[in-house]
Amino acid sequence: MTNVYQPPSPERTRLMRTIFSAVHNPADWRAPIDTTVPDANVDDVVASISFMTATMATVSPNGDGTSRVQSIGYRAGPAGDH
User: Fold this and answer.
1) What is the pLDDT of residues 48-77, one digit of tens each?
2) From edge to edge, which strands make up the β-sheet containing 66-71?
3) Which fold has domain 10-75?
4) Which among 5, 11, 48, 69 could disulfide-bond with 16, CB atoms 3.0 to 4.6 Å apart, if both were Cys?
């Protein structure tokens, strides 16, 4: 069986961009990310950060129904402006 790359659908791309736009720095989308989100949204936020920055986010539950989500951001990641 051969794995063949399938680009994300336009709908998936739009969803990831929409979610990412809620958590990145609007003045510099390549900057590190440090945000607090409702626990119910953590998986989607982490997925959007990975999709848009090629980095893995870390999640720290706050114990109040929210979690802190952090990422080194696009610039510092493997696809960044090196």
Assistant:
1) 999 999 999 999 999 999 999 999 999 999
2) 33-38, 66-71, 58-61
3) Ribosomal Protein S8; Chain: A, domain 1 (3.30.1370)
4) 48
Cα gap 82→62, rounded to integer Å? 33
Q: Is 18 within 8 Å of 47 (Cβ atoms)?
A: no
DSSP state of 49: H
Write down the number of H helices and E strands in the chain. Answer: 3, 3
- Cβ-defined contacts of 25-32 (< 8 Å, 24+): 29/74, 30/73, 30/74, 30/75, 30/80, 30/81, 31/73, 31/75, 32/70, 32/71, 32/72, 32/73, 32/76
pLDDT band at 1 (very low <50, low <70, confident <90, very high): low
